[in-house]
Amino acid sequence: MPYKDPERKKEWERLHRPQRLARRRELRRNEAAQQASQPETPRVEDGRVNFLFPLIAGGVLAAYAPKFAIGAGGLTLAIAAAYKKDWSWWILGVVTVALGVLFYWIEQSAQKQSQMSRKAQNKNAFCGSGA
């Protein structure tokens, strides 16, 4: 085979150069004709609108289930890092995690407040019935 011997390979390439160049020209011509006959359709996208849908869904998820939103936002950030996604994935993940933490904190403070008010009511009820 010509490629095992460098000298024979050079000789083969020198002898077949016109055929190889003609073949390349033919392939380029065919490719250009095919691209001209099938023009690429322009894609119309409004990136701002497409970005808002997942962001709103993340906010709704955070309001409904904060712990789940924190997990989903973290998973979004992990996917963005692993697959080298664009900035919109990173923003979506950070906002979802932040909203999840915010709603979780609000939920916890509301629970503490209600527990404290129940303790105060129980204390008042206990002191009032003993007198």
Please give the number of β-strands. 0
Along the chain, the helix and strand elements come as HHHH
Proportion in β-strands: under 5%
Gyration radius (Cα, Å) is 34 Å
Q: By helix and strand content, what is the structural category?
A: mainly alpha
Mean pLDDT: 85
SS field, number of helical segments: 4
Query: How many structural domains in the coordinates?
Result: 2
Describe the main β-sheet briefly. Answer: none
Helical residue percent? Answer: over 70%
| Principal-axes shape call | elongated
How far do the termini sit from each other? Answer: 111 Å
* Poorly predicted residue ranges: none
Describe the protein's topology.
Layout: H1 6-37, H2 47-64, H3 66-82, H4 87-130
Helix pairs in contact: 2-3, 2-4, 3-4
Task: State the gist of this model.
The chain has 131 residues and is mainly α.
Report on this model:
The protein has 131 residues and is mostly helical. It folds into 2 domains: 2-37; 47-130. It contains 4 helices and no strands. α2 crosses α3 (66-82), α2 runs parallel beside α4 and α3 (66-82) runs antiparallel to α4 (87-130). The longest helix has 44 residues, at 87-130. It is elongated and about 110 Å long. The mean pLDDT is 85.
Keywords:
mainly alpha; elongated; 4 helices; 131 residues; 0% strand
